[in-house]
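Appendix C: a fully annotated inverse folding record. The material below is reproduced so that readers can follow the format used throughout the book. The structure is listed first as tokens, followed by the designed sequence.
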């Protein structure tokens, strides 16, 4: 996968050289390029922003350097991918974007080329996104219902979430199968985890995890997953596919006061 990131703070993306993502870059699983937007500014001050039309607080990122930067990214990427018609899927971190989810991460992991436009100040002139959408797919994306100073933090999160799903990035591919939000779990939160020692500072790990009985361990983890999801993210329970809700699940949900049936799972009351 090729990834291009355009930012006025390219050094902000240096953590992508670390850990498993850094290793994926070294082994060629991830071809990541970070670009300084100011390289496409045309004045001696390397200006990339201006006052918002219509008035208001803050500054808006100008369209000219962004248009030039994205055109250069498209040209460079086409050369590396050896596909004359290739275009990146442009992702624009924004509090006004669609929510980034594990399902989206899985979809993006299946693409060959992603590009990120890191906005700052009040954001990027909307005409940049309109023009980019004429060249290829554009998706404004949000990490959550809060505002950051810029898109770089979001890029770090999205790139890590996507890259870890690429074949070969994780040492054990089973690691992504039963984790929180994984399709195999129906999108539930992962159960609590424990390691040695079995007893620590007077606190003992659940005995079932020491039993060696794989079916009982799996049943315990499923129950704990349901209970944790009901406590922390009850909205996820309502999204469960009824076909994935077992008789044992229904017993746990009933104990929690939830209703479940062929039509789905409903909150208490």
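Designed amino acids, in order:
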């Amino acid at each position: 996968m090729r990834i291009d990131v355009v930012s006025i703070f390219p050094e902000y993306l240096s953590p992508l050289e670390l850990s498993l993502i850094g290793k994926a870059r070294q082994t060629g699983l991830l071809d990541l390029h970070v670009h300084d937007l100011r390289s496409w500014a045309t004045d001696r001050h390397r200006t990339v922003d201006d006052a918002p039309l219509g008035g208001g607080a803050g500054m808006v990122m100008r369209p000219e350097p962004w248009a030039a930067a994205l055109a250069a990214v498209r040209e460079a990427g086409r050369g590396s991918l050896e596909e004359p018609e290739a275009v990146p899927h442009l992702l624009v971190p924004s509090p006004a974007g669609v929510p980034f989810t594990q399902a989206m991460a899985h979809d993006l992991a299946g693409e060959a080329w992603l590009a990120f436009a890191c906005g700052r100040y009040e954001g990027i002139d909307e005409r940049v996104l309109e023009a980019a959408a004429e060249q290829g797919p554009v998706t404004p994306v949000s990490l959550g219902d809060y505002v950051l100073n810029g898109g770089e933090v979001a890029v770090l999160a999205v790139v890590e979430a996507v890259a870890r799903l690429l074949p070969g990035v994780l040492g054990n591919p089973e690691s992504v199968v039963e984790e929180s939000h994984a399709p195999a779990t129906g999108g539930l939160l992962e159960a609590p985890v424990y390691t040695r020692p079995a007893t620590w500072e007077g606190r003992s790990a659940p005995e079932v995890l020491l039993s060696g009985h794989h079916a009982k361990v799996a049943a315990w983890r499923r129950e704990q997953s349901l209970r944790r999801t009901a406590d922390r993210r009850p909205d996820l329970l309502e999204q469960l596919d009824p076909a994935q809700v077992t008789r044992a699940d229904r017993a746990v949900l009933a104990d929690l006061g939830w209703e479940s049936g062929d039509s789905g799972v409903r909150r208490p009351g």
